[in-house]
Amino acid sequence: MRLAPLTRSVIRRLRRIGPVALLVLLTALLIGAAAFRASETAGLAALRETGRHRLDLYAASLEREIDKYAFFPATLELERDVLDLAAGRPAPKADVNRFLERLNQRTGTLAIYVMNAQGRVVASSNWNRPDSFIGEDLFYRPYFIAAAAGRPGRFYGIGTTRNEPGYFLSSTLIDNGEIVGVAVVKVSLEQLERSWATVEAPVLVVDENGVAILASVPSWRYSTLRPLDGAERQRLERTLQYNARPLPPLGLAPVRQLSDDAELVRLPAEARTEADAASPFAISGLVLAQKAPLHGTPWSMTVLSPVAPVTAMAWAHAALSAVGSALVGMLALLWRQHRRHLRALRHANDALERKVEERTRHLRAAQGELVHAGKLAVIGQMSAGLAHELNQPLAALRTLSGNTVKFLQRGKLEAAQDNLERIGQLVDRMGALTGELKRFARKSTGAPQPVAVGRVIGNALFLLDARLNRTAVAVTVEAADDAVALCDANRLEQVLVNLLTNALDALADAPDPAITIAASRQTDRVRVTVADNGPGLSDTARDRLFEPFFTTKDVGKDGGKETETGGGLGLGLAISAGIVRDFGGTLSGTNGPDGGALFAIDLPAAPDPAAPDPVIDTPNRANA
Ligand code: ADP
């Protein structure tokens, strides 16, 4: 059951690669067919080679066996009595018969006999048996005809008397240059077939008539390899060569001629005889028939090697190659798919990375613009604050100067002097404010420098002095002397002003408003915190604190409520975070342990805390 999804996914995949898979399968089939062909060709070549060896071996051993008896009949010529008997001269007939009988026993042949020049048997090894050859006229036998003509006779035939097949070897008996008779030795087939005791493939010997006279499969004996015509049959019947045996065709069906001496033939799948059962060979199906002449005889020998093992091997090779190549093809296909997926993934990844890069670039640009906008916003805030700050003294100046003129007209010089002194004080205060503005507008020096954070806190508080004086906020500063950060004093001040302004905004309705500012050094970092006891950050505010334009303040709200920052633009923290990040630091905001917001600036510390910012030197105006 758990395999089902796997199978389904495999099927889906296969369906997707269907046409290509079909191509792979077809190719695999073709490769299988080619492998079958190649294996069959190689197998047949090997089979032919083995067959040829067998043929040579079996033929040689059969020839040796025949040669053993070849000169045997000629030796009888050496016996005087034999010659006399053949020639019809007085001779001890009984002695010759016994001599032949003993000789026959010694050599293990079927019969040895002597004929006179007319073809009549005059002495025989089987003289004392009822079916003795003695007195028989065998002038028609080819071996007699050959020997009578002075040639050695070789003849295979079935005996007419005892119906016993045998190989007849004959030799002329010559006495004083005159042919007096013929000596014959009959060798049994079993004797010849003895040489086949060790053959590994069915073998048969075919005589000059195309009749199988020797065969390792018994039922093949006296069958013909080629059809006999009527005349031939008649001739054979006349000579009684096979003693009236039926001579059926063996039924070899030719399949393919491979060469002159090698042919593929099919053996009929006929029932085996009882004698065949003893034969160790398969005697049906496709076989490789190889033929060679037997020297010294008009016969030929044929070895039949079964082709079935070659075919089986070829099928095995074909199956192996087809399955193997299909497997390799499929693997290659899957690998290609896999590579394609990987490529697609890589492309997608590249595209994503490009998008991220582009987005980052846009964000950087946006951030730059925001910083710029933030600067403008701060200027706006400052202008609003400044206008507010300057309006009051200006109104007072107007009133005072008007009063002073009246005092002078009335001659109240003391009161006029008093007024003029107050006017001087107001002008001084206004001068201080514009001076402060000038200092705020001072360009940052760019490269980070060692900055004493305590001093920057003092400057920021001074900038907010007027607002702090108007409210009842208690400000506590805990700045350590070694809190010297590597940054830009003006920009850090801008950040602190922003944090303090936010704190003051948050404390507008707080019962006992208080702000605690702390700066401390921790090895290579300086940590500055600004904490208030206002309402703290809401969940949404905490999540979106540094998001540009996130604000909870009413836009454009001014002096009416104590925000005094020109209303919430939602840019302050975003810009501040950017500035701190430029220093290589971080700005974070959370809620303090006693409620109220707690902002922390983390900055890289200056290596030598004893060398603080040399540029800014404004008195510390923190009111504790
Ligand atoms: P703005 O002050 O213009 O609203 P900021 O980025 O400075 O923009 O602040 C964003 C928001 O963060 C504020 O609107 C406010 O809701 C919240 N916030 C900042 N500081 C504090 C604080 N000390 N206490 C409570 N809320 C704060």
TrEMBL record:
It catalyses: ATP + protein L-histidine = ADP + protein N-phospho-L-histidine. Gene3D superfamilies: 1.10.287.130, 6.10.250.3020, Histidine kinase-like ATPase, C-terminal domain (3.30.565.10), PAS domain (3.30.450.20). It comes from the Bacteria. GO terms for cellular component: plasma membrane. SMART domains: HATPase_c, HisKA. InterPro entries: dCache_1, HATPase_C_sf, HATPase_dom, His_kinase_dom, HisK_dim/P_dom, HisK_dim/P_sf, Sensor-like_sf, Sig_transdc_His_kin-like_C. One of its GO terms (molecular function) is ATP binding. Its main location: membrane. Keywords: ATP-binding, Cell inner membrane, Cell membrane, Coiled coil, Kinase, Membrane, Nucleotide-binding, Phosphoprotein, Transferase, Transmembrane, Transmembrane helix, Two-component regulatory system. Its EC number is 2.7.13.3. Residues 385-607 form the Histidine kinase domain. PANTHER family: C4-DICARBOXYLATE TRANSPORT SENSOR PROTEIN DCTB, SENSOR HISTIDINE KINASE. This is C4-dicarboxylate transport sensor protein DctB. The lineage of its organism: Bacteria, Pseudomonadati, Pseudomonadota, Alphaproteobacteria, Rhodospirillales.
